[in-house]
Protein: Alkylated DNA repair dioxygenase
Amino acid sequence: MAMEAPIEIVPGCLYWPGWLDRAGQESLAADLRAILAKAPLFTPRMPRTGKPFSVRISSCGRLGWVSDVAGYRYQPTHPETGEAWPPMPPALIRAWAELAGTALAPEACLINWYAPGARMSLHQDRDEEEFSAPVLSLSLGDTALFRIGGTARKDPTRSFRLASGDALLLAGPARLAFHGIDRVFPETSTVLRQPGRINLTLRRVHRAGLSEFPP
DNA sequence: CAGTTACT
DNA sequence: ACAA
Structure:
């Protein structure tokens, strides 16, 4: 299979602009509408303070990432409905298989919904047990200004735009890099049929084992 | 500090 | 820069 070579933004941070074509984006958007009908977006809150995030989130896959006053964690059920997260659609399994470069299956896909004006401040993805597996990010909808630095908060950062269909991998030395979204640019995509942006973040949570098997 | 605010 |  022909695959265009990614751009390496910083060591370990691989970027495939336009990885998904328009049809692939539309199809994934339809998958997500079905998922969000079963696992509605909810507002995460900061540990201890309870301050709400500006993004709303949901998940698919075996585990979902949640945040509330008690802290950050992965859990197998939606915090408001109590239901298991919907399964990961085949298109996402395929994306992980093609880009992640690991035999470990993805366990969690966090769905971040950025309404116009929503932001995500600089952070690390560090709530997993397994850091040898990369984090895979897919963008859908309006273009965003993404920023990535090093493994220390004070490290210098670089910014670039993530557009609908772009894929980004945080692997190796970039797996624990600080990153965030500074801005979403209005009216830069029609894929979602509404203003805003969706970011999908696929992750391996556990080191290995039983999550490979059906329940 | 996956947060907001102030100021260049 | 913050405040715990």
